[in-house]
Amino acid sequence: MVTPSGNEYEAFGDMRSGTAQVLLRTRTFSGAWTTASPVTSSPTGAYDPVLAVLPNDGLALAWTDVRDGLPQVYYRALVAGSWTQDVRLSPLPGSGMAPAIAADARGVVFVAWLDASGSLPRIRFASFPGSAPGGPVLTVNDTLDSPLPPAIAAAPDGHAWIAWADRGMGGYQILFARWVPDSGLKPRLRASPDVTFPQPSTDVAADSSGALYLAWQQVTGGLSEIHFQRRPRSGRPSPADTVLASASVSLQNPALAVDAQQGVHLAFERSTSLGQQVRYMRWRSDHGWDAGATDVSDPVQGSAARIALLPVTHGNVSVLYSDFDGTRTRERSRRRRLDGNLVAAVGPRTPRGPAFRIGPNPLVPGSELRASGPAIAGTDAVDIFDATGRRIATARAANGSARFTAAQTRPLTPGLYFARPRGGTAARVVVLR
Asked: Which CATH topology does 357-431 take?
């Protein structure tokens, strides 16, 4: 997350005394990262942190916590230089995981998350002042939807949007719902055409005019594509569906952000023979989209993942990502500034997520699933859990890798799963039809 002055914040998961916790670090526009410090003290594990900026240098933090048995979404805020107490947002007896967070210019916070405690997952939503969490928890999707983890964006005036990839109703589609300050949550709408092609991931951003931007991944026949849509506050989408990138290799996990000059920044992962590579492109009102995407990461250095975009202006943006070279994970930052670019390792490994790779992800049942990385080298087994926390498969680990056979993945039904090395942190795995 980045402030208008260019101060950057990063929250990530790491092990502390054998338990997963959320850590926070920051840096100025041109400075180095501060030493990361824990901002949670969960007795059993804290994962998947998300951040939003509040007025007066405040922060809003949400994460998945397993202190109550089933995963639940917890929240705390940095207000006037002090952290508030932990508050559980997801109501019992349900569950909560994969939170997304945004805030408006007044400090109102919007949080959406996935509740997988029922026969079909549900997206829950809450809105509250950043310093006073609470209030009603609303259900965003319809009863027949089958959503994947949500994304969320907010405009300065308090309008907010929740978007997600959905595999219900016999097809794949990108859905979204609006929150209007004076009238509440509106019925969900379809953003993308209803197609039979998988659309497993999406991200959203909003500008100060109230326009919504969506990007999503779509697998069309033998091609992998990144699609884009802009929806003004009123009127029809323009463009309704633009393919920004297309390749015979996998393009996945798009990330969107809007800068203070209303420029749009997009990054995504591209598969290469050496692993995943981060690519980047931007849109400016006077130039449109870049002619093509730019390479950000070097796959020779390692396979990249977990992209975060922190733009300030058209030309000032930081792209954060991690890469794994087969031995260790490094956190990398590529800064684009008006006087040039800088690529640097940003200190010792402090990963935003689990220190291992698992793929293919999304997974088609009946395919082999492989995990590798330093977290695998430090354990004897990797387990797969469903969204309720039930262990459903185990693979033995050796020489820094583990393999789930086709026979182990064939019974998996479409949905969200978690792979976790024993003693380590978990990674999400999406299973498609």
From this structure: Immunoglobulin-like (2.60.40)
